[in-house]
Write the structure tokens for this entry.
Amino acid sequence: MLVAVAVRDADTGAAARALEALGAPVGSRQALSPGRSLLLAAPGPAPAEPVVAALRAAGWRAVARPVGGGHLAAWRAHTAPVVIEGRLCVCFPWAEFDRASAPPAVEVDPGPSFGTGAHPSTRLLLVEIARRARPGQRVLDVGCGSGVLSLAAARLGAGAVGTDIDPAALVATAANAEWNGLEVDVCDGLPPGRFEIVVANIGADQLVALAPAIRERVAAAGWIGLSGISPAQVSRVAAAFGGGGEVRRDEEWAALVLPG
């Protein structure tokens, strides 16, 4: 396995020195997009995983990557971007694909937090955001995890706020926003005010418990997107929000879209 590190071009030297110090000198460099590169380094006889762990602990966007052959093909397929309605794509910072021919990208390093865009429960809400979000709208992402929903909304020109009870999620969302050059506010509780869009991908029990608070934060002409539930749980969640709504399905997961 190689060590792959996604870097801003301005940080290439610092990343190369960090790799060298860990016994993994840079072997090649690939351009990912203007101003961004992927450094590939071989850690010698040692395994790549400890080097990756040390780099990530130091704040680098690092991952173990196969050298070649079928393993590399499978890895590239696993890290391929998720294209959402032709309006944007969600990918890892180290994903190897032609960004110039793809829709605008949101690059997400999930870290310890949930959310890369590939999971059906996340994808369901990404599709709704891509279809409905407009520049200037305000979006609240309840249980933001890695920030993928907030980042997608911000990439489409909306003003996004992410909230989560897990401090690591707030750190991950803020870091991913900075990496993407997007402005996303983060907070550890539900913020005041009303939003044109409120999304929550957090599971049925949490949605039911938060239903009154979520409804209070939706603007009159806005909408709510709820996910992380199974089709069997839709009716219970819908009832907590006053009934009605439209159901979306993706594999064994469901989402509920409700008016404000």
Residues 167-180 form the longest helix (14 residues). The CA atoms of residues 154 and 182 lie 6 Å apart. The first strand starts at residue 2 and ends at 8. The helical segments are 12-21, 48-57, 69-78, 120-132, 148-155, 167-180, 204-216, 234-240.
